[in-house]
Amino acid sequence: MKRKLVSDLKKVSGLSDDEVMRQAVSDPDAQPTDEDFWLRTVRAEHPAGKRPVTIRLSPAVLDFFKRQGPGYQTRINAVLERYVELQDGR
């Protein structure tokens, strides 16, 4: 069963920027994102590029991934990456 996603966009769009900031700062789960946070904590990573290849897949495999919607090639890549990790013992 799929869960329905719920959004507070309507509620938030009616708040002033100051009120949004006050609520965000008072949230105990919110992490500070001051300049120090961005300079010392956050690390940007650029994923390795991908190379175009031709691969032969069974119709059943291809249909399975395509049924899940757009991004099927990315999902196939993720499955293959996980397989490589498991083979490498990671």
- Structural class by helix and strand composition: mainly alpha
Tell me the total number of β-strands: 0
Mean pLDDT: 84
Beginning-to-end CA distance, first to last residue: 32 Å
Task: Give a quick account of the main beta sheet: strands, pairing sense, barrel closure.
Answer: none
**Continuous helix count:** 5
Radius of gyration: 21 Å
Estimate what percentage of residues fall within beta strands. Answer: under 5%
Unreliable sequence segments: none
Number of structural domains: 1
Overall shape: extended
Classify the helix fraction into a percent range: 40-55%
What is the N-to-C order of secondary-structure elements (H for helix, E for strand)? Answer: HHHHH
Describe the overall structure:
This protein is mostly helical and 90 residues long. It has one domain (12-43, 53-87). It is 51% helix and 0% strand. The chain has 5 helices and no strands. Helix 4 (59-67) crosses helix 5. The radius of gyration is 21 Å and the shape is extended. The mean pLDDT is 84.
Which keywords apply here?
about 90 residues, mainly alpha, 5 helices, about 50% helix, extended
